[in-house]
Amino acid sequence: MRSTFLETLLEEARKDERIYLITPDLGYGVLESFGQEFPNRFINAGIAEQNAIGMAAGLALNGKVPYVYSIIPFVVSRPYEQIKVDVAYMNTNVRLVGVGAGFSYGPAGATHHSLDDLALMRALPNMTVTAPGSLNETEDLVRYSVHHKGPMYIRLAKRGEPRYDYKIEIGKMAKVLEGKDFALIATSNMLEDAYQTAKMYQEEGKSPLLLSAHTLKPFDKETILQLLRRNMPIITLEEHNIIGGLASAVSEAIALSSLGAHFFPIAVADVFSHVVGSQKHIKEHLGLGNLKQRIDGFLKTI
Amino acid sequence: MSLADIKKSILSMAAYSKASHVGSALSVADILYVIYGKVAHITPQNVSSLDRDKVILSKGHASTALYATLAEFGLLPREYLDAYYIDGGKLPGHLDKEASCAIDASSGSLGHGLSLGLGMALAKPQYQVFVVLGDGECEEGSVWEGVMLASALKVKNLTAVVDANNLQGFCHTNDIMPLSHLADKFKAFGWETYTADGHNLSQLETLLKQPAQGPKAIIARTIKGHGVSFMENQLKWHYKSPNPEELTQACAEIDIKE
């Protein structure tokens, strides 16, 4: 997904001279080609995230479209107040590109995990919050982001995510698999897990609807309302704290709908990971494994 | 309007709004007057364009000095000065870019302006960018992140002016952090650095206009509350606003001085 991001950005940068790429010294082995092709539009800002964000906002205030790229905690949490004041408050065309959604950097430890970024970004006025779950979504979002007015956050995963065959529209959930029995709504790197789970249900003759919530803000409340009107059970899947991410966005839509819901959020409980191991290993220990079994359990209660 | 009018506007805004930071505004008023009046090319004709010099008041709590200066040079409607800090007003206590196209950056949280200025300078190398900071503000780590990178990138159109009045929230800046050698610090980071009397208009003008081969810093030694005898170097005027008698006396002193 990182390479897809960079390749797409390179293509856009060849057409649009406003595009800059800034890194606080992360992305070794990924970003070099941009720097080689556009030395004047690639800035290694050093290990200094606050300044990197402020500088990006300054570039944007003078007409540029800067992308700031780093591992999520270092492009979201570390310079958060710069994002609030320089990026969101001044409504600048800065793009924050965070790599390593959820437990992507599993064995590196909790400093490198990202379980709060969607919550932090959603709480900022003017900020558009996106989290592609596949390569095609990444391409569409990067292309869209070049011309978007105002700031935008793009949450990237890190592995070789799948590519599906559909086009996306910002702010509108993408239909990945048609179905009518219940709805799986996944975001970011849980889309692949949800897809595999949905396929298992299909093999059993069931008909799950799989939606990708690639845009967390503005949030597609209309699709949630349609599911509620059809009385479809809703299961959300995200590699993020249960507070403030996809489960919260769906809960808010349900709560304001005055319609009842069968709702099962699959997310990380409000804990830091002290589990050592791979992304897969941590997910299994922190409530993101055995998806089919858990969803079966929920569906039985209806 | 004149420099005296700017300073009287600052005093009057502090008085009617009962807001803090009148001392901070008087400390930086001469610097802003020289930048807008003598150095930066910003006019009512080009103010709404991106293609012009930029000025960032990073110590956003001295906002009244900027507001009054902008009004002086026809860049902000004069009546906005009567709508500061009050219900339904136009101008908040700390800078909001949306209030006017003449305000080049929102500020109020310290340590943001230099990074913003660096980005603006990189985006448009043909225009000058001036960033005005406080000396206390230089305790923010982000300032030095920006100082380092501006030097590494050899940015030639970026000037930082430090309003060094040696007073901050609790007491003298030097009693909290060893900032008396600010010029040495900027120099050590590779900036072309000058020290000036921050109330000597011609000296400020000369240094601001001096061409530079890299980023330039001017450490302007200033007096908090400058021009009003009972406010000068008094920490309490970081917080207090003048009552009617104090306002009258202060304005009379400004008229005699300017």
Write out key terms for the chains shown.
heterodimer, A: 302 residues, alpha/beta, Rossmann fold, 2 domains, 7-stranded mixed beta sheet, 12 helices, 12 strands, 20% strand, B: 258 residues, 5-stranded parallel beta sheet, 39% helix
CATH class placement of chain B = Alpha Beta
What oligomerization state is this entry in? heterodimer
Structural class of chain A: alpha/beta
Q: SSE string of chain B, helix = H, strand = E? A: HHEHHEHEHHEHEH
Domain count of chain B: the total is 1
Main beta sheet of chain B, described? 5 strands, parallel
Cα shape of chain B: globular
- SSE pattern of chain A, N- to C-terminal: HEHEHEHHEHEHEEEHEEHEHEHH
Q: How many β-strand runs of chain A? A: 12
CATH architecture of the largest domain in chain A: 3-Layer(aba) Sandwich
Give the CATH level 1 class of the largest domain in chain A: Alpha Beta
The residue-averaged pLDDT of chain B reads 96
The CATH topology of the largest domain in chain A is Rossmann fold
How many helical elements of chain A? 12
SS strand fraction of chain A: 15-25%
Largest sheet of chain A: 7 strands, mixed
Number of strands of chain B: 5
Question: How does this model look, in words?
Answer:
The complex is a heterodimer of chains A (302) and B (258). With 302 residues, chain A is α/β, with parallel strands linked by helices. Chain A has 2 domains: 155 residues, Thiamin diphosphate (ThDP)-binding fold, Pyr/PP domains (Rossmann fold), CATH 3.40.50; 127 residues, 3-Layer(aba) Sandwich (Rossmann fold), CATH 3.40.50. Helices cover 38% and strands 20% of the residues of chain A. Chain A has 12 helices and 12 strands. In chain A, strands 2-1-3-4-6-5-10 form a 7-stranded mixed β-sheet, sandwiched between helices. In chain A, strands 7-9-8-11-12 form a 5-stranded mixed β-sheet, with helices on both faces. In chain A, helix 2 links the parallel strand 1 and strand 2. Chain A starts with a helix and ends with a helix. The mean pLDDT of chain A is 97. By secondary structure, chain B is α/β, with parallel strands linked by helices. Helices cover 39% and strands 11% of the residues of chain B. The model of chain B has no long low-confidence stretch (mean pLDDT 96). In chain B, helix 1 packs antiparallel against helix 2, helix 1 runs antiparallel to helix 9 and helix 2 runs parallel beside helix 3. The two termini of chain B are 12 Å apart. Chain B contains 9 helices and 5 strands. A 5-stranded parallel β-sheet of chain B has the order 1-2-3-5-4, with helices on both faces. Chain B has one domain: Thiamin diphosphate (ThDP)-binding fold, Pyr/PP domains (Rossmann fold, 3-Layer(aba) Sandwich). Chains A and B meet through helix 3 and helix 5 of A and helix 4 and helix 5 of B.
